[in-house]
Each structure stands twice: as C-alpha cells, then as structure tokens.
Amino acid sequence: MPQKNAPPAAVKARSERITSRSRNADWKKPPRRIERSECITCDSCLRSCPPEFGAIFDRGLDVIIVPELCSGCPACVLVCPVDCIYVDEDWSPTGGDLWALADLTAEGTP
C-alpha cells in the first residue's frame, strides 16, 4: 500500500485527493509522466514515490503516474535507470480505470 510510513495527515490528504479526483492547488510544479515506450517496468519509481503521494502504479505491462496524486517532486526521476520520466505540462485528467487502482490504496480501504 503506497501510504505505508506516511504521517496520518498526509494519508488523509492523499485519500481526499483520490475522493475528489483533483490535484492539490498549492502544488507549483506540474506532475510527472512515464514514457511507456522507454520504460522497462522495473518499478524503481513506484518504490521511491513518497508515500504521502502514492502517485505511481504498476498495471502489469506498464507503470503509470496519476497526475492528480503527483506533486512533481523528482524522487522517481532520480532513481529511474532509463530516464523515462518527464515533466507533464499538458497533463490530462485521469480516467476512471486508473482511479480504481488509486481507490484500492485510499485510507479506510480494507
């Protein structure tokens, strides 16, 4: 579960972003995106994403970043062995299928 070891307030804030399906308006940096054609699905980025964001998910054949959960911090970029993570200035709202993954990791989910 992405929130492991995150402060309770951070877990609650992440759950609220999942519920509202919106990005924190105070975040100044744009979210990140993973270029699927370059990604080797090593999950280094997923493991390094701070638990209070928990923005990265492994969907089996690809790894994705939910932009509404991504603060734009460089934690994932710093560990990516193939440099396939970029700033996503023109990000689009996340579709329902990806929110289903995020819902599974929200606070209060069994």
Automatic annotation (TrEMBL):
One of its GO terms (molecular function) is metal ion binding. Keywords: Iron, Iron-sulfur, Metal-binding. The keyword Heme does not apply. Pfam families: Fer4_21 (PF14697). Residues 30-59, 61-90 form the 4Fe-4S ferredoxin-type domain. Residues 1-29 are annotated as: Disordered. InterPro entries: 4Fe4S_Fe-S-bd, 4Fe4S_Fe_S_CS. It comes from the Bacteria. Residues 13-29 have a biased composition (Basic and acidic residues). The lineage of its organism: Bacteria, Bacillati, Actinomycetota, Actinomycetes, Micromonosporales. This is Electron transport complex protein RnfB.
